[in-house]
Design goal:
Length: 503
Amino acid sequence: MDKLHLELALRETDDGMRYATMMVVVSNAGTSLGALLYPLQQNFQIITDRINSFFFITAAFRENDAAYIWVMHWLSKQPVLQNARNVEVTTGGFIGSGGLASFRTNDDPGPSTKDKWHRLAYVPCLSRPITFWYRGRWIYAVRVNGEKTGFWGETGLLLSILTFDNSDLQMSVYASDPMDRWRQVAACSKRPLQSIILDPGVKEDLLKDAREFLRSREWYRRRGIPYRRGYLLYGPPGTGKTSVIQSLAGELGLDVYIVTLSRRGMDDAGLAQLISDLPPKCVAIMEDIDAALVHNINRKKSTGEKDGSDQAEDESPVPRQSQRGEYERPSGVTLSGLLNAIDGVGAQEGRLLFATTNKYDALDTALRRPGRMDKHVRFKLTSRYQAKELFCRFYEPAELPDTEKKGETPVVLVEQDVNGPGEKYRAVDPDDAIPHVAADLEVLASRFAEAIPDRKLSMASLQGYLMGYKTSPQDAVEQAASWAEREGRPDEDGGNMREGQEG
Ligand SMILES: Nc1ncnc2c1ncn2[C@@H]1O[C@H](COP(=O)(O)OP(=O)(O)OP(=O)(O)O)[C@@H](O)[C@H]1O
């Protein structure tokens, strides 16, 4: 006789994530019961994702990002890692590489006589989760490989916090899994739009346009126009294209769906499936939409169809219109497949699609045309106005940390001696510290902006530079001109990456 058991199970997947799952166990079940359960199996991942996102806030950090290094540093300080049975020991590989020289976490009291000289750091082993309590919250951390972070091809860290209070949850980020289904990879609090510094009016205009679109469903319906809106953000790397999209999504209260065209295994059918599975209202992002077109040319080269004499043609990634869809990209997505996914019959209504590119002119005109990409926004290298605003925002007076309120001298890790016995610290002159520069901030910011050449450097590089002077804005101003001069110099191969990427 058929038996049906219901069990509540804690499932641990190979990416180390745990899901509380209602399992249906059937023994000797007949075909009809199997058919009954089929939709359940199909929705299993969706259900477990929902349960997971209800109980946990999860943040994903990719290994090449500075934030990964900060979080690993913070993790290595947690007592659980000092006492864990399975840890990876590092002599500071991540400490040295990410500019931790001037980094200090809120909980990091600086050197004590006891731990001043330790130089080994413990970090979680790959795929071996660690769990611990931190300030009354249960934390679950696991280092995972490649696709499990949603950042294809990169190792990363997933950090989940158990919480029943979802008020901090501003938006969820989804990426596709190898089966071309959407999976939630992170839930983040929204990035304030004020933190994105663009020329006046640019982000306000984008926000206004998106808001207007979301209010206009009926308007579109009456005119028979497909209710979709596409935005093409183009310009050099590090100018804020991705950041502004994430910030807009938070502002509009929409979840983010990342479409990675170059993901291994992605093809036209998979892309169409993903696009048609988008929820009715969301922000879909296709980053570096030009990259797939460039791969067409690489493919030809790799098959030996092209030789050195065709160099010029190879370097132009613009496919002729007559060749549309003729070549398959390594990802398996063709241009015609992409065009269909964006506005074919299966394309989801109500979604906002944001595509980014560093090579505007390389895009097929069919991809750029209104109806697919309705609004084109150019992002430029940093203006003096942006440099000044960034400086002000970076050194904005903050709430005094508790230690400083009590009059204790703040201590900052200033350098790490890789050959010596450990880390070196110095006490920060309170007059240098961030909260004390409010009065001079405007003056310093103006001097900083003057030292930065107009439209030559990206905001990302300026931000990276200021990170080196987190607590010393004076020094940041003093050194800015020589740094900008070095930074703007052509690279050894004669090109200038910062200027040469656009169009
Ligand atoms: N306009 C900006 N205002 C504030 N921060 C910025 C701005 N532009 C870039 N940044 C900072 O630089 C980093 C990279 O920015 P982002 O990824 O948004 O650039 P991007 O234009 O999308 O680059 P890419 O084309 O390489 O994807 C982020 O940490 C972001 O905070």
